[in-house]
Specification:
The structure is a single chain. By secondary structure, this protein is of the alpha+beta class. The chain is 28% helix and 26% strand. The protein is built from 6 helices and 11 strands. Helix 3 runs parallel beside helix 5.
Length: 285
C-alpha cells in the first residue's frame, strides 16, 4: 500500500524548485495508551476547564489565549491579533547551505520525515538526491509552514531524500554542561573493551532483529483482561550483583576467568596441607 502524504511543499535551491510531499516515518497507534473512565459505569470522562479564581466551569467560547509576561500576569490576544503576530502561512523549504554530512551532531535531530517528489518534480528530486550522495553533503534549510519556521536538514536516503527537523541551537543543552569526573583508563582495560566490542560487532544495523517486548507483554495481559481472566503481578527478578572491579567485569563479559591466578594459589595451599599431614604421620610413627 502506497504511503499517504501528510503535507505538500516546495524545495528550492538556486533557481531550482522541487514540488515535494512529506510522509511520516513512523506507524501511528503503536503506543499502548489508556483512557480515564468512570469506575462506576465505565464511561470515558470528558476534559473540562475550571477557573481556580472564580471557581466556575469555563466554556470554550469564554476562553482566550494569553502570554505570561510576568509571574501570574498575562496579556490576552484575540483571533485577529494572533494572525497578525504569526508568520504568514506558506509552505516552502529554502535551502541555505550544504555542509559535510558528518558535521551535524545527532543531538540536533528532532523529527524525521520522508520526502517524495510531487507532480513534475521527479527529475529535480532525483538530481538533488544523487548530488548530495556523491558530494557526501547534506542540505540545511529553513522550512516555513503553518505559521512557524523550522530549521531542517535534507539528506539522501536509499533512492530518495529524508527531511530531519532540527533543534535550534538555543533548544539544545550542550555536552559541556554534563559533569564528568577525571579517571584513568588502563591499556589492558581498553584492549578488553575493544575485544568485547569486536565480539558483538555487526557489519550493518538490522532493525528487524529487535521488537518491543514490553508492548507485546502489555497487549497480552490486556487481552487476558478482555477475555475475563485475572492479571497477577509476577515477582520481579533481583538485579544481578554489581561487579565493582572494571577489569573483572570486562573479563566476565568475555567469558574469561576474572582472576586466573587464584586457582594456582589454591593448589599451592592444598600442597602445603598435604605436606603438613605427611610430617605429622612421620612424627607419630
Amino acid at each position: 500500500m502506497a504511503a499517504r502524504a501528510i503535507a505538500s511543499t516546495t524545495i528550492s535551491f538556486g533557481l531550482v524548485s522541487i514540488p515535494s510531499k512529506l510522509y511520516s516515518t513512523g506507524e501511528t497507534g503503536r503506543k499502548v495508551s489508556f483512557n480515564l473512565v468512570h469506575a462506576e459505569c465505565g464511561t470515558r470522562l470528558k476534559q473540562q476547564y475550571i477557573c481556580p479564581k472564580c471557581d466556575v466551569l469555563v466554556p470554550r467560547d469564554d476562553m482566550a489565549k494569553g502570554y505570561e509576561f510576568a509571574k501570574g500576569q498575562y496579556v490576552l490576544f484575540d483571533a485577529d491579533e494572533l494572525k497578525a503576530i504569526e508568520m504568514p502561512k506558506k509552505d516552502h523549504i529554502e535551502i541555505t547551505e550544504f555542509v559535510p554530512a558528518d558535521q551535524v551532531s545527532p543531538v540536533y535531530l528532532d523529527r524525521p520525515y520522508y520526502l517524495g517528489p510531487d507532480k513534475g518534480g521527479a527529475r529535480a528530486y532525483r538530481l538533488l538526491s544523487m548530488a548530495l550522495r556523491e558530494t557526501e553533503r547534506v542540505a540545511i534549510a529553513k522550512w516555513a509552514t503553518r505559521g512557524k519556521e523550522y530549521l531542517v536538514m535534507i539528506r539522501p536516503h536509499e533512492e530518495g531524500l529524508v527531511l530531519d527537523q532540527l533543534r535550534y541551537d538555543g533548544e539544545v543543552k550542550h555536552f559541556g554542561e554534563v559533569p564528568i569526573d577525571e579517571a584513568e583508563v588502563k591499556e589492558a582495560e581498553l584492549q578488553l573493551a575493544k575485544q568485547l566490542i569486536d565480539q558483538a560487532a555487526s557489519d550493518e544495523f538490522d532493525a528487524t532483529r529487535y521488537h518491543d517486548e514490553v508492548r507485546e507483554r502489555m497487549l497480552q495481559l490486556i487481552q487476558q483482561k478482555v477475555d475475563g481472566q485475572e492479571i497477577t503481578v509476577q515477582p520481579t527478578e533481583e538485579p544481578a550483583a554489581q561487579i565493582i572491579d572494571l577489569m573483572a567485569a570486562l573479563k566476565a563479559s568475555l567469558g574469561e576467568d576474572a582472576d586466573q591466578k587464584k586457582p594456582a594459589a589454591r593448589a599451592g595451599k592444598k600442597g602445603v596441607k598435604k605436606g603438613t599431614r605427611s610430617r605429622k604421620k612421620a612424627a607419630s610413627g
